[in-house]
Amino acid sequence: MGIRKLGHYSIRTTDLEASRHFYTRVLGFREGYRPEFKFPGLWLYMGGDETDFGTVHIIGIDPNDPQGLIDYLGDKSLDRLKGTGTVDHIAFLADGLKEMRARLSAMNIPFTERTVPSVGLHQLFVIDPSDVTIELNYPAAEAANLDQAKIL
Predict the structure, then answer these.
(1) CA atoms within 13 A on the CB side of 60
(2) Closest listed residue to residue 107, CA positions, set 46, 30, 22, 29
(3) Of the candidates 33, 60, 80, which is a domain's last residue?
(4) Domain containing 140: what range?
(5) Quick one: pLDDT band at residue 30, thresholds 50, 70, 90?
């Protein structure tokens, strides 16, 4: 018996639409099936993972009717709903670095990058609307090819 893979991660937000936009329009996730809970939210999927339960669960906070969420997951004060706390970031394997750079630039979304040559990895970091750091991991060769093309 052992842990096989990440099931999903969840983010509580007071701005469900901003999170929807970020994860679908910026990162390319798609909305999928979500059970009927007594609080608003989204289940977001990558690729063809319909047999799973989504990768990102966005938990909306309804200030007019918070009881459904409180009953299901417990209460958290709004001042605790920013950033990742002791979790530093969430990382995804990715491809299409050129397209992601262009998308983020076109949407005026700041990002940082660095390459870790010893493991052949190029990292792009972006912050979601709830102040959660998302790391996108690309093959270092993909970044090197793009950077070399700029020089020529």
Answers:
(1) 18
(2) 22
(3) 80
(4) 90-151
(5) very high
For the chain, the 3-state helix, strand and coil shares in percent, each to the nearest 5, are 30, 25, 45
- Distances in whole angstroms, Cα of residue 6 to Cα of each of 10, 137, 152: 12, 16, 41
User: 119-122 contacts: CB < 8 A, separation 24 or more?
Assistant: 122/97
Give all strands of the β-sheet with 41-45 in edge-to-edge order: 9-13, 56-60, 41-45, 30-31
96 and 42 share one domain: no
Angle at 115 between CA 47 and CA 112, to 5 degrees: 75
Question: If you search the block for the tokens 């669960």, which residue do you land on?
Answer: 57
Question: pTM, whole model, 2 decimals?
Answer: 0.81
| Per-residue model confidence (pLDDT) at position 146 | 78
For the segment 107-128, what is each residue's pLDDT rounded down to a tens digit? Answer: 999 999 999 888 999 999 999 9
